[in-house]
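Appendix B, Record 12. Input sequence as logged:
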Amino acid sequence: MRAATGTEAAVTVVLPHYDCAEYLGTAVASVLAQDRPDLRLFVVDDHSPDEAWTEALRPHAGDRRLTVLRTSVNVGHLRIKNKVLELVDTPYVAFQDADDISLPGRLRHQLALLERDGADLVGCAYEFIDPVGHTTGRRRMPRNGNLWMRLGRSTVLLHPSTVVRSEVLRRLGGFDGTARLGADTDFHLRAARLYRLRSVRPVLYRYRIWPGSLTQAPATGFGSAERLAYTRTMVAQERRRHTARSREELLSLLVAPPNDIDFTLESVTVGG
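Logged structural output:
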């Protein structure tokens, strides 16, 4: 299931999606157009109800950097990322949402900070876009995420715009494998205990706000019962870390629970 790249890849980009044919092709094209040829892209379909999404990938069928997979059951993007981590052999992992767009130079800027300045998890400034791609706003994230977290701010990175050292993901057990949503913030909270969270200043990511997105849909969006329940669990776990009596106890609380759903990843052929 590995993608051949012709050169040794430095970064694996993980792009899960569910029934997102409308935007998927643009998201994939924005990753493959990055000026870092040493990348590998995993597009993972989360058991969508039909095959419409495969048409969006047809223009990229011949790109050897691209690997397309499908889950055996619907599991959510966090469990997918944990599963794909088992296939990763690159020093860095980047994330991308299927309805968003990476701007030119995104990976180059972020990998430069990781490679030269010793950062461990790097985000960027981003702009909000509407369903048809019009810019509606802009947000800059703090350069030093650790400092702002110590000052009480919990959101210092936009998860799908980040690049992280693979060793960080492995040491922390990846993402909470019992959750369908919300655990990206939990990962940042855990990572900040041991690693350097930074952001580059340029706007390098376009974050789409539309009714069908995970953060906007009534059942899963901000303010939904499911998201509020997970937030309560996350806050309680963070309190436990604050009161840990030893470094050993703290380190054990920084490791995420593994995936609680058994599933497989199957190769998908697109194009033809």
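Confidence is low (pLDDT under 50) at residues 1-7.
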